[in-house]
Design goal:
heterotrimer; A mainly alpha; B alpha/beta; C mainly alpha; A: mainly alpha; MetI-like fold; C: mainly alpha; 9 helices; Bact_solute-bind_prot3 (chain B); signal (chain B); Solute-binding_3/MltF_N (chain B)
Chain lengths: ~220, ~280, ~220
């Protein structure tokens, strides 16, 4: 079996590596985009304006309670039926971003809510606007609390990016699929791709655990 | 830190194989399996197994117009492959209703057959040397050839025009492999099944879809804004696949096929689906 | 977009049939993974030698792999080594393997969150280990566990949609069969599927909130 794995590796290492790169690209871009979108949604949820709160909550609840696959299909096939053409890379990244942003918004909202209300009031009393108070007083503290859950979201992102394999996304999972149907060596192909995912996610998990312990102590 | 991580990964890799095997075994015994069909395996003839069970289980496509397509309106699967499957059920079981159809895709069909989920594959499957190492094939029951499906206004007229173009294909199909050889400059994007591939073509995710002309014809009949181009650039003889070494089933299938052909029943089924008589070679 | 055509009764009925499969697979997987998760969590909480380390490695590995890969692996790869399952059981097995690892971590951290001092006090006041677990640790831990466990159940329900890749005739799969026949059906069908998932999952999350407050 080990021989088979090595054979597959030596024959298809190019595919594996290019898949790995695509997986990483998608994950990193989606992480940055969903951090931004998630922060905006979180601010909506805790803003004093009723309309924004409703929009924010509706977004979070709807996205969190529906499968990611639907969202990816919506961007890939759905928008195309309205003549908006997105490549699998763009559609996949958008789907992952929209999905992950809902979870990130929840994490940030919980983080912000854990900052005592008095701090906000004190900042406002000392002359800062609402946005300034958020920007300089509340958010920096909240981010410290939400870093571990954000780390977990990044791990989820890497794992969830495998869904791009279903829409010919040229990621790790897609290439593994193609290799396994060409070689009929399913077991070995998937073991190898599993190792690839683990080499990304395990160090991340260790990092998140370490951060969590450190921040708890601080 | 770095060293620790790499050691950890190595441990994971080892543990992974051992534990998946151990745990998978445990899962297989779960009550959810109570309604699973008794897997025949190669040691026992699947003809005997089918008779014992009271029905023949055949893997067919659910998404391929003219060959095997599920109609949500009445829940029936219909097509050329289905009619052939029924004829075989009649031969083996004495009754063409003693049959169970299971959905397969190009990717899932060989594993499902080897697994014992199904007794035979009748699913637009080309006979190839590579596949012969995995399964046994019946005589040829349909002659197809690879072709291209493009939108009516497309400039593509054949495989010579595919440089730099995106070609849509299906995972695990012969056409996906062959197009890489015939048009090495083309980009190939492979999808899970024909339905998704056709949706991808309609959604302009690629410039053309390639597979057997017979399957493309079925798509073109559903949506006339597409046309077939490029002629037939490969031979795709379809065979019925059965488990390796299952001689009794192979014999029954081949006998059915020759009886169908000599009685004229084959021509009738063919005409019913393709609107013309099969061309005699 | 053709909402009227897409929502014809045969289509909707076909979707509902798929949803039934989704719910069935999810329900069986929830029960199985919950049981396995409790066993895993207790093994790790009680630090049973060898077994505990084994479970730790297993849980960490599974948690760090994509579910899609696990589904493929269980269905396609395991048969190469002699473990054969049909689609329905393979979907349940894969979901159970994945979710039990996730849930066991939730249960374990719930157990860990109970103050050590309380346990010592309970033991000192004459309760045995079983009693301490039953009356002191579990009631507090359970309360903290309910929200994350329910959200994991919601994830599980959503994750059944991934079984589309092994052609399990669940909701997403049946939806695909319908919209593949006409591109104008894509958005209406995806929307209806999303609403079906949403209704069940949102109801679940409300129940979770009630449970949390009523204690």
């Amino acid at each position: 079996m080990l021989q088979n794995i090595l054979d597959i590796w030596s024959k298809y290492n190019g595919e594996y590596v290019s898949g790995l790169i695509t997986t990483l690209q998608i994950s990193v871009i989606s992480l940055i985009a969903s951090l931004l979108l998630g922060t905006v949604i979180a601010i909506f949820c805790i803003s004093p304006f009723r309309m924004l709160v409703i929009i924010g909550r509706a977004y979070v609840e709807f996205i969190r309670n529906t499968p990611l696959l639907i969202q990816i299909f919506f961007f890939y096939f759905g928008l195309s039926s309205l003549d908006i053409q997105l490549s699998s890379f763009v559609a996949g990244t958008l789907g992952l971003t929209v999905y992950t942003a809902a979870f990130i918004a929840e994490a940030i909202r919980a983080g912000i809510n854990s900052i005592p209300k008095g701090q906000m009031e004190a900042a406002r009393a000392s002359g800062l606007t609402y946005i300034q108070a958020m920007r300089y007083v509340v958010l920096p503290q909240a981010f410290k609390i939400v870093i571990p859950p954000l780390g977990n979201q990044f791990i989820n992102l890497v794992k969830n990016s495998s869904l791009l394999g279903v829409i010919a996304g040229m990621d790790l999972m897609y290439h593994a699929d193609i290799i396994s149907t060409n070689t009929f060596k399913t077991f070995e192909t998937y073991i190898l791709v599993g190792v690839f995912y683990l080499t990304i996610t395990v160090p991340l998990s260790i990092l998140v655990n370490w951060l969590e312990r450190r921040l708890k102590r601080a | 830190m770095k060293k620790k991580v790499s050691v950890l990964s190595l441990v994971f890799m080892l543990v992974m194989s051992v534990m998946l095997v151990a745990c998978g075994g445990k899962e297989a015994d779960k009550p959810a399996d109570a309604n699973a069909p008794a897997s025949g395996g190669t040691e026992k003839s699947s003809v005997a197994a089918a008779k014992e069970r009271g029905k023949l289980i055949v893997g067919v496509k659910y998404d391929t117009n003219l060959f095997g397509k599920k109609d949500p309106a009445d829940g029936q699967v219909k097509g050329f492959d289905i009619d052939i499957a029924k004829a075989i059920a009649k031969k083996i079981m004495g009754d063409d209703t003693k049959i169970e159809l299971k959905e397969v895709t190009s990717k899932t069909r060989i594993p499902m057959l080897k697994n014992g989920d199904i007794d035979a594959i009748i699913a637009t499957m080309t006979i190839t040397e590579e596949r012969k190492q995995e399964v046994d094939f019946s005589d040829v029951y349909f002659e197809a050839g690879q072709s291209l499906l493009v939108p009516k206004d497309s400039s593509i007229t054949g495989i010579q025009d595919l440089n730099g173009k995106t070609v849509i294909a299906v995972k695990g199909s012969t056409s996906a492999k062959q197009i890489r050889e015939k048009a090495p400059e083309a980009k190939v994007a492979e999808y899970e099944n024909y339905a998704e591939a056709f949706t991808a073509l309609k959604s302009k995710k690629g410039d053309t879809l390639t597979t057997d002309n017979s399957i493309l014809l079925g798509m073109q009949k559903e949506d006339s804004s597409f046309k077939l181009v490029g002629g037939l650039f490969t031979d795709e003889p379809y065979g019925i696949a059965i488990r390796k070494g299952d001689a009794e089933m192979l014999k029954a299938v081949n006998e059915t096929l020759s009886e169908l052909k000599s009685s004229g029943e084959y021509d009738k089924i063919y005409e019913n689906w393709f609107g013309e008589k099969p061309q005699k070679k | 977009m053709d909402f009227i055509g897409a929502y014809s009764w045969p289509n909707v009925r076909y979707l509902l049939e798929g949803f039934l499969v989704t719910l069935e697979v999810a329900a069986i997987s929830i029960v199985l993974s919950f049981i396995i998760a409790i066993v895993f969590a207790i093994i790790r909480y009680m630090k049973i030698p060898m077994l505990s380390q084994f479970v730790f490695l297993w849980v960490e590995m599974i948690r760090n792999l994509p579910l899609l890969l696990i589904i493929f692996f269980v269905y396609f790869a395991l048969r190469d080594v002699g473990i054969k399952m049909e689609i329905f059981s393979a979907a349940i097995a894969a979901l159970t393997i994945f979710e039990s690892a996730m849930i066991s971590e939730i249960i374990r951290s719930g157990l860990m969150s109970v103050d050590k001092g309380q346990i010592e006090a309970a033991r000192a006041s004459g309760l045995n280990y079983g009693q301490t677990l039953r009356y002191i640790i579990l009631p507090q831990a359970l309360r903290r566990m309910v929200p994350p466990i329910v959200s994991q159940f919601i994830s599980l329900l959503k994750d059944t949609s991934l079984a589309i890749i092994i052609s399990l005739p669940e909701l997403m799969h049946n939806g695909q069969v319908i919209y593949n026949s006409k591109s104008t059906y894509i958005i209406p069908v995806l929307l209806l599927i999303a609403i079906m998932y949403f209704v069940v999952n949102y109801a679940l999350s409300i129940v979770a909130r009630r449970l949390e407050h009523s204690r």
